[in-house]
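Handout, section 4.2: multi-component inputs.
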Amino acid sequence: MRGYDELFSFFEKHLDELQFSHQPTELYGPIAYTLNLGGKRIRPVLTLMSCEMFGGDATDALPQAVAIELFHNFTLIHDDIMDDAPLRRGKRTVFKKWNPNIAILSGDTLFALAYQFAQQADRRLLPEILSVFNQTAIEVCEGQQYDLNYERMNNVSVDGYLKMIRLKTAVLFGASLKIGALIGGASEEHAENLYEFGLNIGMGFQLKDDLLDTFGDEHVFGKKTGGDILTNKKTFLYLSALERANDEQKEKLHHLYNTHDEDEEIKIRYVIDIFTQLKVFKAANLEIDKYWDNGLQSLDKIKISDENKEILLDVAYKMIVREK
Amino acid sequence: MRGYDELFSFFEKHLDELQFSHQPTELYGPIAYTLNLGGKRIRPVLTLMSCEMFGGDATDALPQAVAIELFHNFTLIHDDIMDDAPLRRGKRTVFKKWNPNIAILSGDTLFALAYQFAQQADRRLLPEILSVFNQTAIEVCEGQQYDLNYERMNNVSVDGYLKMIRLKTAVLFGASLKIGALIGGASEEHAENLYEFGLNIGMGFQLKDDLLDTFGDEHVFGKKTGGDILTNKKTFLYLSALERANDEQKEKLHHLYNTHDEDEEIKIRYVIDIFTQLKVFKAANLEIDKYWDNGLQSLDKIKISDENKEILLDVAYKMIVREK
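Output:
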């Protein structure tokens, strides 16, 4: 069983070879552009890894790994329109570089292409694989809708937030692992345990993202910290703070999150001050630890060698303790 | 084998029962709204019909019929954003009634739901069915992109236009029939002939749409004629006219199609005058006849009873000779 670096190169080489240079170029240009923006390719690597973990040949899981990466990139293209995001990985987003119509349609096409790859599985496994894929696709859309809803709501709970990130982000990690496991020959039970492992790691991954956005080292994280605060995003940190705050702190937070004319640096400092007083940094880390432990419990149930578990845990650990 | 009316009711009843009332309502509300706008359900009826045509049980084809109707409605929701269309079947479009983000995301979800239904097939047939479905989905996106491209181009050819409507509209009719046939037990060869039949009928259907928009009887057609002319749409009629026009007529057409400040009634009358001089009405009907004949040739190759062929031809004929 190969580790992250080897499988990353293996996947990247394959993705490069696929090209996406069909006609019309207005449609496939943005698709190639998006896929060339890079990224850590964690999801497809997890698919290949979980396939090898059960003794499978990662080559057999390549179409599904591609499908998952294409699906993920489709969601990025559409999310960027909805979030009015100008940049993605330091480059202009598709809807900014081209226009919203091109972004809608090239996203749709990427989604259809994802299914074209997902379908390339042994026909005995196809129904199971597609069930996971379809269910996940629907849940990711639902998660994005909750995310949009929460932007306009003033009474989002921490639980509501956790449900949202489970759908929007975590399930795709679960699905990536489960699909690879099925192709690798895992039993339905083992594949399901690996799904649970991925789901929990995915939760930790997103919570870590919230933390890095606010408390990360800008030079390591690669982007300006405090972005979530400036855009009034209701993250785990903000919602935990609200649940812990006294009336005065609550009022101050509400005020800071409902204004756009505060000086940026001052706003970030004020919010971080309250976050620090309320120990939400620690609360987030405890929450991440909880998901990590839950993930480990699911992994424990799977009968594979300790060596293979270590390789997987190495990736999972990097997803959660990362500094960028 | 049942006819259109019976299969329409059969499908409509099933679709009604499905409901689409999950959470979050912001996502599923627009989906239910769109599916309740009605429509002729020609595509799913064709799927059910082609299944029965080969002795299959239409119930077995219901999930695929639903998948095709959901996919079609997904394209309508996204196309309406791209075309900035305020109305669909007399009701407000999703992006106008809600907003573009809701329309993007509920469209995406509808697409994912379509796949969830498409997947519900006998596992021996699943790879073939999904191949048709995926290929068609990608082609429909490509067709929509060509349509968007042509809006900005001044040198679109009639051939380019025919290629566009083949992708955007006709292939889905072919796919509807082919998928039903496969489920009904047709051989790959027969299913492919039925695909060709559907493709040709679909071409005729779209050309008839162009004709009705310009030359239809408003009271029967149900919407104001001349809409394509007012929005400067490069239809078969316009492009054929340009190919037949002398320099003076060409200049006049270019002028009329590049201005928005002309009086509406006068603009329509001027354009129809030129269309009439250049006999494009007749040209379109000849083109429709050509596709009809091509379709018949494909149908002739299929060994099913004349009675069953008559039932299918009855639907196809209504698609092409319809007055609305």
